[in-house]
Amino acid sequence: MKIAVAGGTGLTGRLVVETLRGRGHAPVVLSRGQGVDLMTGSGLDAALAGADVVVDVSNVTTMKKSVAVNFFDTAGTHLIGAAERAGVQHFVTLSIVGVDRVKNPYYTGKLRQEQIVRAGAVPWTILRATQFHDFVGQLMSGMPGPIAIVPKGRVQPVAVGEVAEALAYLAVRAPQKMAPELAGPREELLVDMARRLIAAGGARRRPVVPVHIPGGMTGGGLLPTGPGLRGTVTFDDWLKEQDFSAARA
Question: Is the pTM of this model over 0.85?
Answer without folding.
Answer: yes
